[in-house]
Design brief:
- This protein is mainly beta.
- The protein has a single domain, classed as Lipoprotein localisation LolA/LolB/LppX (outer membrane lipoprotein receptor (LolB), chain A).
- 15% of the residues lie in helices and 45% in strands.
- A 12-stranded mixed sheet has the order 7-8-9-10-11-1-2-3-4-5-6-12, with helices on one face.
- The longest helix is centred in the first third of the chain and has 15 residues.
């Protein structure tokens, strides 16, 4: 899973925590969509921990499959861990460890809360509520279920994507579709989500002792 795909994955997690408090200057966001996003936000923020399986489907503009990825995600406050296709990403809220299994190498970076890049801190503190216009498209069939479809459009037109579709059922986002300007589409679906379970803080910290011979690249 490359860095761009991981960014989209982390973006999905952030969208689940949208506060939906659109600034007045946006003006054109949909009140019905805001109501649903408020419910999603309130429900998600009440969880102490989240553990889920995910599937990421990648297609080109013609609908041809470019691959599928699957994995697991763990969340606890601002901490998270993503495991997928030979790569693990750990974050304890202060540092990020990216482990590449094939190379047996881990890269460590410090999270800079003042940086303009997408970071977990920004994503998990309503980073998106000022960056999107949103509207409710209505009920659609998705994954064999009737769901509310909400369309998000980035205000910043320099973003690599031009549209995000969220599919919501019972105040939970189960599927997100990201449409890139290149024509590629990313469909991210959540399966078997468990909430409020016990997850040790050690889950979010890379332990080099568990990876014999690992090469450590510390960029902090």
């Amino acid at each position: 899973m490359n860095k761009a795909i991981l960014t989209l994955l982390i973006s999905f997690l952030a969208i689940n925590q949208i506060n939906a408090q659109a600034p007045k200057s946006m003006g054109t966001s949909d009140a019905d969509a805001k109501k649903i996003l408020d419910q999603v936000s309130g429900k998600f923020k009440a969880y102490k921990t989240v553990q889920a399986q995910f599937v990421l489907k990648i297609e080109n503009g013609s609908g041809k499959s470019l691959g599928n990825k699957s994995g697991n995600v763990f969340m606890k406050g601002t901490k998270y861990r993503i495991s997928a296709s030979g790569q693990d990403i750990f974050s304890d809220g202060s540092n990020i460890w990216t482990y590449e299994k094939a190379a047996n190498e881990v890269t460590i970076n410090k999270i800079d809360p003042t940086a303009n890049s997408i970071t977990p801190q920004k994503l998990f503190t309503n980073f998106y509520d000022k960056d999107f216009l949103y509207k409710l498209n209505g009920i659609v069939k998705e994954g064999g279920k009737n769901m509310q479809e909400i369309e998000l459009t980035p205000i910043d037109k320099t973003k690599p994507f031009f549209k995000v579709l969220l599919y919501v059922d019972k105040s939970t986002i189960y599927t997100t579709k990201v449409f890139e300007k290149t024509g590629n589409r990313y469909t991210y679906s959540i399966n078997n989500m468990k909430t409020n379970g016990v997850i040790s803080d050690d889950t979010f910290v890379f332990d080099a002792k568990k990876y014999p011979g690992v090469e450590v690249v510390d960029l902090r």
